[in-house]
UniProtKB/TrEMBL annotation:
Pfam families: DAO (PF01266). This is FAD-dependent oxidoreductase. InterPro entries: FAD-dep_OxRdtase (IPR006076), FAD/NAD-bd_sf (IPR036188). Residues 29-376 form the FAD dependent oxidoreductase domain. GO terms for cellular component: cytoplasm. It comes from the Bacteria.
Length: 441
């Protein structure tokens, strides 16, 4: 089994070497820090709106090195973040507008990919959420019976399910490298191998020179804490994935997974899975949730404990796959704000802006955030700039060691709640409710 190497997705398409490193000081119109999907979509839509803009993207490694090239490939219509936090800012109507905008964005991504010739193994196959205990079923409130779930995928001990058709399966590295290619072809410079060390109004200071620009956009998601002055802003939460060896036709038949629908459960320490285009199961989950002092992994290597825990989840859902080999394991970080809700912000007075904090549902949200940042930077008042995540403010995380102790306690509580629910508890465990309160969700 390979562990790390950034991700299985990148190993499949080939790890790129950084290109177009910054070579001394430059001046441009817009400087974007971070070449994940947030930064790249923002560059794409800003350039489309005004092709005369000189846009530079500053990237420490290579475009797609972060979560955008490592994720589970769920292009999903799920709300990125906590509905009650958005409702506090913009009421229920605001939450519904955000939900509708995210849902419509699934098609926007699919359309752009088709238009621009990005082949990212996209199938608009929907997602099957499965409840495996009475407590999970109560939370899910799904319309599918156990028999109907089994007609789609035979998950052991499924009690009920919910199918959301507005969701697509994709190959993360193919999508992000495709978007990077498109923006480069339009003339946007992506300065890879160039690390930002500080951001200030009018400038990005990097290890290879200073980029001066009247607009500076921070798009660093789980890496935000690495930037001076932002350590306690968004917590870098780990997520890890294992990819099995290709399954045989008989194995696929045995588990009844004949389509490309995505699959997730309703545990508190939930799992998410996809059937890859080359016939594997890629299954992800939390594992070790957080590293002390907001450290991030080096090249996607994850802990052995996490690999074993994901292997165990896989065989709990599909006992017939007990002997199947795991070919690859990796992890990455996502950005978690203190109220578990994303924000897209821009201050015209300073020219500083940012987007992120999607808490694990960023694949669709990055595109919506990119279009929202475009409108904010251009000073336009649109349906997008009126969404409740615009200029959403949130307090910072606690200092260490409280932050580390808090997050680890939280996930111990979630795992304890899952164990009690698996043992037959009929309602959501009180332990999970306490954990939610501790988390501030
Ligand atoms: C394992 C995993 C599974 C996931 N699964 C899903 C999923 O199935 N569906 C879903 O919707 N979401 C999923 N997510 C979340 C989703 O991938 C992210 O929300 C999304 O990719 C965030 O994109 P981004 O561009 O904001 O950040 P990133 O893609 O992380 O990009 C940030 C970039 O900044 C660069 N960088 C870091 N520090 C610096 C610096 N100092 N200077 C310059 N550049 C820097 C990094 O190298 C990186 O390229 C998952 C995340 C992980 C980690």
């Amino acid at each position: 089994m390979r562990n790390g190497g950034v991700s299985f997705w990148w190993q499949q398409v080939g790890l790129p070497s950084p290109t177009d490193r910054l070579d001394g000081d430059v001046t441009c119109d817009v400087a974007i820090v971070g070449a994940g999907l947030t930064g790249l979509w923002t560059a794409h839509y800003l350039h489309e709106a005004d092709p005369t803009l000189d846009i530079r993207v500053i990237e420490a490694e290579f475009a797609g090195f972060g979560a955008s090239g490592r994720n589970g490939g769920w292009l999903s219509s799920e709300l990125p973040g906590n509905a009650s936090a958005y409702a506090a800012q913009a009421g229920e109507d605001g939450v519904e507008r955000l939900r509708a905008a995210v849902r419509a964005t699934v098609d926007e991504v699919i359309d752009v990919a088709a238009r621009e010739g990005i082949d990212a193994d996209i199938v608009r196959s929907g997602v099957l959420h499965v409840a495996r205990s009475q407590a999970q079923a109560e939370r899910l409130d799904g319309e599918l019976s156990a028999t109907q779930v089994a007609e789609r995928i035979r998950v052991a001990d499924a009690v009920s399910g919910h199918f959301d058709p507005d969701c697509a399966r994709l190959h993360p590295a193919k999508l992000v490298s495709g978007v990077a290619r498109v923006v480069r072809e339009r003339g946007v410079r992506i300065h890879e191998g160039t690390r930002a060390v500080a951001i200030e109004p009018g400038a990005v200071v990097t290890d290879r020179g200073t980029v001066r620009a009247s607009v500076v956009l921070r798009c660093l998601e789980g890496f935000t804490a690495g930037l001076s002055g932002h350590r306690r802003e968004w917590l870098p939460m780990n997520s890890a994935i294992v990819a099995t060896a290709p399954l045989t036709d008989a194995q696929w038949r045995e588990i009844g997974w004949s389509g490309a629908e995505l699959l997730g459960d309703e545990a508190h320490a939930y799992c998410y899975a996809q059937r890859t285009a080359d016939g594997r199961i890629a299954m992800g989950g939390r594992g070790v949730p957080y590293r002390f002092r907001s450290r991030t992994d080096v090249d996607g290597r994850t802990q052995d404990w996490t690999v074993e825990s994901l292997r165990s989840t896989l065989t709990t859902l599909f006992p017939s796959l007990a002997g199947v080999a795991i070919d690859h394991a990796w992890c990455g970080v996502l950005g978690v704000p203190r109220d578990w809700s994303a924000s897209v912000s821009f201050d015209p007075a300073t020219g500083l802006g940012h987007a992120g904090g999607y808490v694990g549902s960023g694949l669709t949200a990055t595109n919506l955030a990119g279009r929202t940042l475009r409108d904010l930077v251009r000073g336009e008042d649109t349906d997008l700039t009126r969404l409740p995540w615009t200029n959403h403010r949130v307090r910072r995380w606690e200092p260490e060691p409280l932050r580390w102790a808090g997050v680890h306690t939280l996930y111990r509580l979630y795992r304890a709640a899952d164990r009690r629910e698996d043992a037959g508890l009929e309602r959501t465990s009180r332990i999970a409710r306490v954990a939610h309160r501790v988390a501030g969700r």
